[in-house]
Prior knowledge:
Helices cover 45% and strands 11% of the residues.
Amino acid sequence: MAEGTTLSFPSDxxxxxAHDGLKKRILSISRRLRQAQTHLxxxxxxxxxxxxxxxxxxxxxxxxxxxxxxxxxxxxxxxxHGYCTPCAYSARPRPSSDIRQDPYPALLKQVDNLLSRFxxxxxxxxxxxxxxxxxxxxxxxxxxxxxxxxxSSFFSDREIPPDYRRNILDRFLQFSNKHHVDWHLxxxxxxxxxVKASESGELDRLQPLLETLNVVVNMGFEHDxxxxxxxxxxxxxxxxxxxxxxxxxxHHGLDPGVFLFAGAFILTPREVLQQMAHGLAFxxxxxxxxxxxxxxxxxxxxxxxxxxxxxxxxxxxxxxxxLMPLLLDYAPxxxxxxxxxxxxxxxxxxxxxxxxxxxxxxxxxxxxxxxxQLLKLTHDLRLGGGQEMFKKACKKLYQTAKTASMACxxxxxxxxxxxxxxxxxxxxxxxxxxxxxxxxxxxxxxLDAYLTKxxxxxxxxxxxxxx
Length: 467
Ligand code: SF4
């Protein structure tokens, strides 16, 4: 806890705890943080004339690394309004704005650039087999996958207008025909945008392309608990809209994947596991693939501000041992499932690069070698290890943890080895709205100091270049 700050909780009847009021305060803080970062980017990057390249980073796949590609045009509108508290996906340096300049033709240049670097980005990184994938249309020996989004959503008309969407997908098809390779495209979309694309008839018109390119969609849901999703995450997503988007995706054979966020700044690690269990149970009934996002620290976000105020911490990597059994038990019925397995864990690699992840942040206690082993175990389990592999690895890792004096830091670990459910235990006394109010009161007090510190740091070190 930062010096000079004390925790006191108002009664639950207080107006301070009304959900709308808490959400407005979260939005207001996030907007100020993002505006300050945008201003800083303008100071640091005066030489950008246009987006010549998409932003690209890589995640490990079944046969090597695959690229995650963010096509750049205009910033995500939810980001600009302060929604989606921990998100920094649209926090990027931009060309100086000229309102007469059309931002969309650069999208096609970014795709052409991507395809012109096929060897570097695809061929040299995988063997082009995608073992275990149930590919619908396979005409060639090699198949390559990539995740593709706009600044937030591939189906956002504001970020990628419909004509450009078709043109982009067409370019992948032409490349496929010319170079004799197949594609598996994972498109990131906001649920509202998919509903709109369905209602306008666009999805029907695109169906042949979607099938040929073996398209699946990924959508953010973050939390099934309404308070966590709409207030703490400020997602601005109605559950009925989300369910409609899932049903549309299934109707079009787009094997939906859903992002579930493993964290929230008011929750204890044990509560996060409880929320994961609830969220997974709900998504299992929907028959969807799940992308579990581990929390990280992105500069100029509320969680990072609270981390600096010593009011929030990332879970120790041993916490993954509480998450893994939940994922191993996750068994949705996916009739048109393309991706093998039913889950993925991300959030350790991200763009923009986070200031800290659960295996790499200044207050991490776990030895790095143990943290790496835990991450590797998560990866191996995803690719097919079962309960037996988990139990064996648990015993081995426990010895490593004991040797490194970690056992005392791992209540989850101890629960598992005692055979107890990691989900049992007493909840802390303050309610979630009480904790939210308290965290925000501190964030509001510390906001100016945080901005001064982060800006000074950024002005000393220019952000690193990515591909
Ligand atoms: S989570 Fe998606 S919609 Fe929300 S701010 Fe980030 S990019 Fe935009």
